[in-house]
Amino acid sequence: MEDDALEVWDETCPHQSWRDIPPPRSIVRAKRDGHLVKIPKPVLVIDSAELRAGYTFERFSKWIAGIERRRLKDGDYTVQGLEQAVTIERKAAADAVNSVMPPQRAQFLERCARMAGYERKAIVIEASYAAMRSSYEGFTESRAHPNAVIGSYLAIQERWGIPVYFIDNRELAEEFVAHVLTKYYVRRWLQDANLGDHFQDGDI
User: Fold this and answer.
1) Could you count the other beta carbons within 10 Å of the beta carbon of residue 198?
2) What's the per-residue H, E or C state across 74-141?
3) Smallest Cα–Cα separation from 94: which of 124, 121, 123, 127?
4) Which end is more exposed in the chain, N or C (fewer Cβ atoms within 10 Å of the end residue's Cβ)?
5) What is the distance between the alpha carbons of residues 87 and 66, in angstroms, rounded to a whole number?
6) Is 3-192 assigned to CATH 3.40.50.10470?
7) Rounded to whole angstroms, how far apart are CA atoms 175 and 108?
């Protein structure tokens, strides 16, 4: 668990939306025998093809030491030093539709087959499940049926064990990716330091 998880909820405003609740102030912390473990911050690696449309993680500068941009074999985001272990593929709504339809489908499925070999992998779609189950006319000219698109991603999840996350919008998706990468990094760092596979004593 994070120390920031203990932040006090404002009971005077019980219906706060996610926009009113800032993300945690710092990277996930780890304690051993009641003492904080000093963990260096990770450097996140962004595929160079994400230059214009990708995340910058500027809102999470307190979580990370910086970013590096270069061509990645698979996925769009990873952690420096863990490139062979973790990969996340980002999909804007239109790209999510087009990727599982011809002519892009075959190439995308080949990438998914490679991603299956990573210890931690994910496909993050910048749209809610409801949006991806509705008409696509607002963001793409594709005439793909929503059932075919959703069905393809759920089949990918089952066939290759790649979790597929439908995140409501781009801002929340960026935060989600930052969480996944930094928490995975902390767990791996603790493992390599022989400090166990958990954040704090008693964690699940």
Assistant:
1) 16
2) CCCEEECCCCCCEEEEEECHHHHHHHCCCCCHHHHHHHHHHHCCCCEEEEEECCCHHHHCCCCCCCCC
3) 127
4) C
5) 17
6) no
7) 24
Residue 189 to residue 19: CA distance in whole angstroms: 31
| pLDDT level of residue 203 (50, 70, 90 thresholds) | confident
The whole-angstrom separation of Cα 185 and Cα 181 is 6
DSSP bridge partners of 17: none
The closest alpha carbon to 93, from 52, 147, 58, 137, belongs to 137
- Other residues' Cβ atoms within 10 Å of the Cβ of residue 101: 17
Q: Which helix (H) or strand (E) holds 179?
A: helix 170-192
pLDDT, tens digit, 9 for 90 and up, residues 117-126: 999 999 999 9
Nearest to 129 by CA among 77, 172, 93, 178: 93
CB count within 10 Å of CB 60 equals 21
- Residue tagged 């093809």 (tokens): 49
The pTM of the full predicted model, rounded to 2 decimals, is 0.90
In residues, how long is the chain?
A: 204
